[in-house]
Structures are given as structure tokens and as C-alpha cells.
Amino acid sequence: MAQQQAEASAGTQVQVGVYGLGTMGSALALNLADKGIRIAVSNREADWIDPFLEEAGPLSSRITGAADLGNFVAALASPRVIILMIPSGAPVDDMLAQLSPLLNPDDTVVDAGNADFNETRRRTAQAKTFHFVGMGVSGGEEGARHGPSMMVGGSDHSWQQLQPILEPIAAEFQGDPCVAHVGTDGAGHFVKTVHNGIEYADMQMIAEVYGVLRDGQGWEAPQIGALFANWSAGKLASFLVETTAKVLHVTDTDSGKPLVDVIRDQAGQKGTGRWTVIEALKLGQSASAIEAAVGARAWSSAKSARLAAATQFPGVGQVELDPATLENALFAGRVLAHLQGFEVLRAASAEFDWSLDLARIAEIWRAGCIIRSSLLDELAPLLRKTPQRPVLLADGMAELLAPAIPALRQVVGTAVAAGLPVPALSAGLAWFDTARQGTGTANLIQAQRDAFGVHGFERMDMPGKHHGDWG
Ligand SMILES: NC(=O)C1=CN([C@@H]2O[C@H](COP(=O)(O)OP(=O)(O)OC[C@H]3O[C@@H](n4cnc5c(N)ncnc54)[C@H](OP(=O)(O)O)[C@@H]3O)[C@@H](O)[C@H]2O)C=CC1
Ligand SMILES: O=C(CO)[C@H](O)[C@H](O)COP(=O)(O)O
């Protein structure tokens, strides 16, 4: 029988169970089996198990398929480890309710999907008969199959169980596995959420530079693709720039045009970018470049309104920006988006008492994940050297960032003057200029607040709370 029944007896050395054989779950399961780890697999639609075992080929000797949840759990050596790779929300709660009576207090259930960390904290608190772990997994299908970056939350007990399983399957950066126990309860999912927020900003900034070249300079997709290919060997070296270069070179077989030119300009989003912005605001942080990216995706879906507005408010000028300036501008924007993300992480760490190690997080993002880049390898030692300082003030940050700022200023200024939208690049620049303004304009805000609401203000020349006589 192709679909083996679970080897239900205690004592079998099935080290981990993977539940959910969709894109990510099946890739992760094959990665585990490839590394010599014996696994059990199960899926809501049991019909998927046999085809999966066939796809596994010789690896199937290390895989036990179990259609029945009881057999799946019973196949696992104790203390058990079960990885759920299913959509977040109600499906996870349903699975936990079904698993709960089958588990023991030393067992660990991992939600490896993208989940709202608030729900992860709730689930962690509610899990009474097992340990619950929220784990971020990044790298898409390819990463899950050959080496993802993994951000693990939950208890130390669970990390003891998970470390020997996850280190062999993680991506490696110069021999260092890209997996870490980043903090307790929801920390893993929070760090993954912020990773995705940075991903949104980076993708948006890349798209803005593409837009400047396409609409402001009349470049064709393959020409822009060649430029990105060139950049991917320099300071912008990264998975996302490489991917951009690749997709800009693909021709649509139906129309003979670049495929990107026939794709409707409406971006999807599943929520992680939005969660980053919501949590940043709750923590009193400004993740403005990430917010701009989320907002740009929202505007993208209002296609008919944009088409109408394009006729009512016409006029986009031509620009002339040289590739080196655009490259530096994109680099500066990328640095600023990362700094915003790391500041959100720092604030969350203080709020939830997670002791997040920002340098280690940068290190585990250097390979396997969607935002992997040479920049992260540059940021990690800076964050390690002066961990207590705001990241903008980390030792070495000025040397990294300042030389690229004039280019960002030039690109944002030129694009804005021509009516070309660059919301994420300009938000990053505005954040930077605000953050470096030693004497800001909040004195006027305080005066306004006191004038209409008697909220009081502090003076620079004497202590205490004061009010103005506003007439
Ligand atoms: N795709 C990606 O690049 C990435 C995805 N993720 C996250 O990984 C998780 C899985 O994504 P992905 O593999 O792409 O999704 P798929 O749609 O490919 O697979 C979903 C899996 O979840 C199962 N499932 C769906 N609903 C339920 C339910 N109510 N109860 C139990 N099982 C259910 C499906 O089972 P069935 O076959 O029965 O429908 C299937 O096995 C998501 O949280 C996603 O956000 C994280 C990083 C990257
Ligand atoms: O988690 C990921 C990578 O790290 C996924 O690619 C993510 O689902 C992409 O998000 P969205 O669909 O919102 O663009």
C-alpha cells in the first residue's frame, strides 16, 4: 500500500511530524527527510498524501504517511514535535483543538505559517497540554525545500527539541545556520512579520526605480532588467534585485511582449506588511517606508479610480537620472527601510520583554529568506558593536548611509518634480531628515496643544510644566 499506515507503536524514531502538505509544508517535509530526519506527514485532504510520497521518491523511506490524526501523533517519538504548515487564523485554532487531547505536556506544536503574533501570544497562553511555538519561515518554496531562514519563538524547552531538527535544514551563511530562538512566546512570528514589512518596502522601492525608468526615461523592461542584473553584483546584491532582473527578462509567449508588461498593475497582499505597520504604530514607532509600501499596494488595487484620475489630473514629466545615482538612491532607501524595521523590533523587545538580539536577527536574514542581501551582512556587525544605540546611530552607520543620501535626495526631488510617484523612497528620506533634525518643530505643536487644550509644555530654559498666555 503506497500510503503507509502510521507506525503507531511507541519507540519508533520518527522525530517530527509535518501537518499540511501544501506548497511550504511539502517542501519543508522533503528538506527534513533529505537531511536524514525521519518524519511523519499528514494533511486535511488525505488524498494528497500518496502523491506526496510518490514525489518524495527514495526519501519516502524516511517518511510515514498518516491519514488519521491519531495515527499521525502516535507515530512520533516522545516528546513529540509537530509542525503545522497551514494558513493562519481559524485553521490553526481548529488543529490545536484537535491535537490538544492527543498530546503530553512535554510535546511541542509549531505554527510555521505567517501568523499575527498577537494570536500566537494568545495560543501560547492557552496551550495547557503542550508547548506552543510560533515560528517564522522565509524563503518561499525553494527556501523551504533547500534551506529557509527560520525565526523561532516559544519556550526554551521547545527550542531544545527544535534546534537539532531545524539547524540541519536551515539555510547557511558561511557555515552559520540561519535559524535562532529569537525570543519567547510570539517573538518568532513578530520578527517574521517585520521581515515581511521590510520585504514590502524593499519591493516597493525597487518598483519605484523601475517606474522612474519606465515612465520618466522611456526604458523598456529588458533594458531595466539588464541594469538590475548589473546592480545585483554590487552594493544592491540581494535575492530581490536578482529576482527583479530575472522577471524583467521574461517574454510572454502569447503576446511576444515582456511578461511584466502584460501583468495587471494590482498587487496582492496577505497581511504581514499591514501587521508590521499596525504594530509599529501601537509601539509608538514610525515605519513610514513600510506604510508607504502597504499603501501603494492598496492604491494599486483601485485600478479604475486611478485610470479616471489619470485623465482628470494628467501630466508626468520626463527625467534624466543616471544609473549610478539610482543605484545609490535605492541603496539608501533600502538601508532606511531596514533601520525602521529594526527600530520596531527594538521597541517590541522592550514592550514584550523578549531581549531580541538585533544583530543575530540580521545574521539569520543573510541567507535563505526573501530579504537576504549583502546589506544584512554589513548591518549585522554594526548592530553587534553598539546594540543599545538607536540603529541610525550605530557605530559605522554614518559611513554606510551618508554617502548614498545625496543620490536619494536627487532621485526623490527629481521624481516628485516630474510627478512620478516614489512614496517609499520619499518616506524613507523624510524619516531620515526628521530623525537627524537636532532642533525640530515640535515646539510649535506643543504651543498649539497648549493654546487649544491647555496641555502644557516644557521650557528649555527652566524646569517644570508651563502654560502660555495665548490671548
Ligand atoms: N508560500 C509561501 O511562499 C510562504 C507561505 N508561508 C505561510 O505558510 C503557510 C502555508 O502556506 P502555503 O504552503 O503557501 O499554502 P498552500 O495553500 O499551498 O497549502 C495550505 C495547506 O494548509 C492546509 N489547510 C488549509 N486549510 C486548512 C484547515 N482549515 N485545516 C487544516 N489544514 C488546512 C491545506 O490542506 P488541503 O490540501 O486539505 O487544502 C494545505 O495542506 C501559510 O501560513 C503561509 O502564509 C510562509 C512563508 C512563505
Ligand atoms: O512570507 C513570505 C516570504 O517571506 C511570503 O512570500 C509572503 O506570503 C508574501 O506576502 P504577500 O503575499 O503579502 O506579498
TrEMBL record:
GO biological process: D-gluconate metabolic process; pentose-phosphate shunt
Pathway, per record: Carbohydrate degradation; pentose phosphate pathway; D-ribulose 5-phosphate from D-glucose 6-phosphate (oxidative stage): step 3/3
Keyword Phosphoprotein assigned: no
The protein's Enzyme Commission number: 1.1.1.44
Catalytic activity from the UniProt record: 6-phospho-D-gluconate + NADP(+) = D-ribulose 5-phosphate + CO2 + NADPH
Keyword terms: Gluconate utilization, NADP, Oxidoreductase, Pentose shunt
Residue ranges occupied by any 6-phosphogluconate dehydrogenase C-terminal domain in the UniProt entry: 188-471
Taxonomy, superkingdom: Bacteria
Record: active site: 192 (proton acceptor), 199 (proton donor)
Amino-acid positions noted as binding substrate in the UniProt annotation, renumbered to this chain: 114, 138-140, 195-196, 200, 270, 297, 449, 455
Pfam families, alphabetized: 6PGD (PF00393), NAD_binding_2 (PF03446)
GO MF entries: NADP binding; phosphogluconate dehydrogenase (decarboxylating) activity
Keyword Oxidoreductase applies: yes
Oligomer status and interactors: Homodimer.
Protein function: Catalyzes the oxidative decarboxylation of 6-phosphogluconate to ribulose 5-phosphate and CO(2), with concomitant reduction of NADP to NADPH.
Family: Belongs to the 6-phosphogluconate dehydrogenase family.
Annotated protein name in UniProt: 6-phosphogluconate dehydrogenase, decarboxylating
Species in which this protein is naturally found: Falsiruegeria mediterranea M17
